[in-house]
Amino acid sequence: MGRSSDDTLLKCDVAVIGAGTAGLVAERHARKAGAKTLLIDPEFRGTTCAAVGCMPSKLLIAAADAAHGITQASQLGIDATAQVDGPAVMKRVQRHRDRLVESTKAQIRKLPDGVCVKARAKFSGPNTLDLDNGQRVHARAVIIATGAAPTVPDAFSGLGDRLLTNENVFDLEELPTSLGVVGAGPVGLEIAQAMSRLGVDVTVVDHGNSIAALSDPAVANRLHDILSDEFPICLGVDAKTVPAEDKVKLSWQGDSSGEALVSHVFLAVGRPANLEDLNLAKANLKLDDHGTPVFDRKTMQCGDAPIFIAGDANHDRPLLHEAADEGAVAGHNAAKWPDVARSRRKTPLSIVFTRPTAASVGKVPFDAEADMLVGSTDFENQGRATIECRAHGGIRLYAEKGGSRLSGAEMCLPDAEHLAHLLCWAIESGMTVSQLLDSPFYHPTLEEGLKPALRDLCEALQESTPWDRADGHIPGC
Description:
This protein is an alpha/beta fold and 477 residues long. Mean pLDDT is 94; it is low at 1-5 and 467-471. The protein is built from 13 helices and 20 strands. This is Dihydrolipoyl dehydrogenase.
């Protein structure tokens, strides 16, 4: 299949709309499965992760960690002063960001001739797409991988270049002098803390009453208390902005009220899926209350149509590793349609790179105490964390009543990304709480902080506690 005698009509087996992580993986897997593919995107700018997401934010956080380490060195008896060079910080962020983006673009350029079509697409039928370059695509199956973009409510319009989102914050030539962050989710908090540790005066406000997308109130409240020592976080408030000469007046009312005069506002109140311009009505798909196609998480298929959806476009698990997994499933199934295979979804894992790091693993109920058994450890006295002047936060482990296996965990603690991976793998492997507790724990490590929580769960599950569990506790671990 390929170009027809009519140059305005393109024919293929699988058309992929969107060249982000999900789209690139979907195209590759569809082609690997033997399909003739088209990858349609208006920009081919590289993935969200490389351009405006995961990687540039971690570059900023790395600089913030270095500055914070210097300011905290006095606790270890070391006299040092941090001098933050804002332009140099941003140049490094941009230099490495651009290198990562170019690496992604280089992979796109290696795709077979004729695969990439630079255009915007919209449905004219379940199997047909109209492109804004005048061409039309006919495909046996279509994959929607259009990603998501930050939303800008009317209350924050009119701020010009003083309004920042993840799309433009990494292009700043200099750090803001002060920053109002609207949104206490993962993106808002990562940027807020990084900017604060680089010397920016930061205030965070949010309409909700939890932070970092954490489900367990005990963990969310603990993280809120820790971060509030560095910058104010006002929850349960409605915020608005008014330009004020060369500044912006950010004000809020609700559970608390106040205002701050800031040089910039960083907006992180959500990233809705890029679906509005797809003309989904022509695709004859059932949509949910948010206007997102109803789909099967195991196949990525939308109803019984030859249409699949993957990545941030479906707003199910808006994380890079999930986008890649979904793209692989969607690509394979689109190529094999109507012979669609169901896949196993991996254990949920999400990480917020604040300090301390927050993470959720597996099944984390909104009301952990009511629905599941809980074991916990307070890291304020954990041995290795105390040695490193990072003794804060804690972890909560969950197991289903009547069971024996670890079901999930939520935490905010030093280097939680590593413990989160270990626990995720343990859940994937079906390990019981008893087996985890009987595993080796080196001393002194942060991993030892799991042991009190595991002991709690063993007791709650009424499992036996041999001497090495009950009496082998090392003080300070």
